[in-house]
Specification:
five-stranded antiparallel β-sheet; Dihydrolipoamide acetyltransferase component of pyruvate dehydrogenase complex; Dihydrolipoamide Transferase; OB fold (Dihydrolipoamide Acetyltransferase, E2P); seven-stranded mixed β-sheet; Chloramphenicol Acetyltransferase; lipoic acid binding; lipoyl; alpha+beta; about 425 residues
C-alpha cells in the first residue's frame, strides 16, 4: 500500500478573492497529482476580473485531485484542489492544520475519512507517528529576513505599511503567515523604517482643506472607475487671438477672453458629438444623455481646486458664457459659491495654459465622460502658405471615457475644436 493512500482527503475551496468577485479562471496549476505540498504553498494561479493571483493552500499533504484544468472557471466556495493529509503527508503545521495564510473567506472540506488500519512495519509493529514526519525546516537565524511564501500575505502587509519579512513568522521554518500580519496590524506594530540605524524618517502631516479632500476623492474615483484615453492636437491660434482682440475691443466692459471662446467652441462641438456630453451607467450598461450642456470649468482658489458649473451653457452666447464664468470664479475664490453651482456638470473645460504648461492629460471629473483643455500659446515654427514661419500655436487635449465613444468620435470632436481655434469667425456663429 502506497503512502499516498493513507489519511483523509480534504478539499481546499476557492476562497473569496474580495471586491465582490464570484469566480476565477484557472491560469495554470503550480502542482500536479501526486506532488507533496507544504502549508501555505501556492497551488494554482487564477485570474479574476481584477488581477491574476497565486492561491496558497492552507494545509499540507499529497495532491489527490485537481478540480479543473487551465482555462476552466471555478466558483468561489467550490473545490479547487483536494489534498490527502495524514501521518505520511508532509504537513508543515502538524498533519494539515490550517495556517490562516489563505485569502479572505477560504474554506476546507474534509472528505472520505480513512478507515484503513495503521501501516505496520515488517515486524508487525506500528511505527511512531514522528518516524515518517518530514524534518522541520530551520528557523531563520538572528538578523535574517523571514520567508514570506504567500503573495496575499505580502499584499496585506504592504497595504498596512508593514514589512512582512521583518516579522517573526509562526509558520514552519519561520514562514510569515497571514495571522502574523493580522496580529501586527491589530497591535499597531510597524517594523522600523528609514535609515540603516532604524530611525524612522521624519514626516510632517499636512491637513487638507475640504475642497482638496473632495478633489482627491473625485480624482481617485475617476481613476478607479473610468477607462479613459487622451487625444491631443496642435493648432495655429492666430485666428483665435485676432477674434479675441476684435470682440473684446468692441465691448471692453464685457470681455470674452480665451476661456469664454473655448467654452463656446465646446458647446458647439457637443451639439455635434453628444456622446461626450453623456455619462455611462455601469449597472445597465447604457448612456445617460442630458437634454442640455452644463459646462464645468476648473477654477483655482485659495482653498484648492474647484469645478463650478455653468448650467444650461447651450443657451448662452460666448459673451454670456464668459460673464457667467467670471462671476462663478469670483464667488468660488471668495468662498460664497452655492453648493448647487458645484454639481450637475456634464462636461468640463480647463485652461491649464495659465499655469505655463503646454499640455496635460487631465483627469475626468467623475461621473462626466470627458474634459477638454488648452495649453499656453507660444510662437513655434509652423508651415503656413507654403513657408515655415513663426506662428502662435497652442495644444488642445481631450480626455474621454472610452466606454461612451471610440477614438474616432473623440478625435473628430477635438479636430472641430482645433478648426474653431484656427478659423473661429467661420464656425463660431452668434457671439
Amino acid at each position: 500500500m502506497s503512502a499516498a493512500g493513507e489519511g483523509a482527503v480534504r478539499s481546499f475551496l476557492l476562497p473569496d478573492l474580495g471586491e465582490g468577485l464570484t469566480d476565477a479562471e484557472i491560469v495554470q496549476w503550480l502542482v500536479a497529482v501526486g506532488d507533496t505540498v507544504a502549508v501555505d504553498q501556492p497551488v494554482a494561479e487564477v485570474e479574476t476580473a481584477k488581477a491574476a493571483v497565486q492561491v496558497p493552500c492552507p494545509f499540507g499533504g499529497t495532491v489527490a485531485e485537481l478540480h479543473g484544468g487551465a482555462g476552466d472557471t471555478v466558483a468561489v466556495g467550490e473545490p479547487l484542489v483536494s489534498v490527502r493529509t495524514g501521518a505520511d503527508a508532509p504537513a508543515a503545521e502538524g498533519g494539515g492544520a490550517d495556517s490562516g495564510a489563505v485569502l479572505v473567506g477560504s474554506g476546507t472540506r474534509p472528505e472520505r475519512p480513512s478507515r484503513r488500519l495503521p501501516r505496520r512495519d515488517a515486524a508487525g509493529e506500528v511505527p511512531p507517528a514522528t518516524a515518517s514526519a518530514a524534518p522541520p525546516r530551520p528557523r531563520p537565524a538572528t538578523g535574517e529576513r523571514a520567508p514570506v511564501i504567500s503573495p496575499l500575505v505580502r499584499r496585506i502587509a504592504r497595504e498596512h505599511g508593514i514589512d512582512a519579512a521583518a516579522l517573526a513568522g509562526s509558520g514552519d521554518g519561520g514562514v510569515v503567515l497571514r495571522r502574523d500580519v493580522e496580529a501586527a496590524v491589530a497591535a499597531g506594530s510597524r517594523p522600523p523604517a528609514g535609515g540603516p540605524d532604524g530611525a524612522p524618517d521624519a514626516a510632517e502631516r499636512v491637513s487638507l482643506t475640504a475642497p482638496h479632500r473632495e478633489m482627491a476623492r473625485r480624482m481617485a474615483r475617476s481613476r478607479r472607475e473610468i477607462p479613459e484615453a487622451t487625444v491631443w492636437v496642435d493648432a495655429d491660434a492666430t485666428g483665435l487671438l485676432e477674434l479675441r482682440t476684435a470682440v473684446d475691443g468692441a465691448a471692453p466692459e464685457r470681455p470674452v477672453g480665451l476661456l469664454g471662446l473655448l467654452a463656446r467652441f465646446c458647446v458647439l462641438g457637443l451639439a455635434r458629438f453628444p456622446a461626450l456630453n453623456s455619462r455611462f451607467d455601469p449597472e445597465r450598461e447604457e448612456l445617460l444623455r442630458p437634454a442640455g450642456v452644463h459646462l464645468g470649468f476648473a477654477a483655482q482658489t485659495p482653498r484648492g481646486l474647484v469645478v463650478p458649473v455653468v448650467h444650461d451653457a447651450h443657451t448662452m452666447t460666448a459673451r454670456e458664457l464668459a460673464a457667467e464664468i467670471a462671476a462663478l470664479t469670483e464667488a468660488a475664490r471668495a468662498g460664497t459659491l452655492p453648493p448647487d453651482r458645484l454639481r450637475g456638470g456634464t462636461f468640463t473645460v480647463n485652461n491649464y495654459g495659465v499655469f505655463g504648461v503646454d499640455g496635460a492629460a487631465a483627469v475626468i471629473n467623475h461621473p462626466e465622460a470627458a474634459i477638454a483643455g488648452v495649453g499656453r500659446i507660444v510662437e513655434r515654427p509652423w508651415a503656413h502658405g507654403g513657408e515655415l514661419v513663426l506662428r502662435p500655436v497652442t495644444e488642445l487635449t481631450l480626455a474621454f471615457d472610452h466606454r461612451v465613444c471610440d477614438g474616432a468620435e473623440a478625435g473628430a470632436f477635438l479636430r472641430f475644436l482645433a478648426d474653431c481655434v484656427e478659423r473661429p469667425a467661420a464656425l463660431l456663429g452668434d457671439m
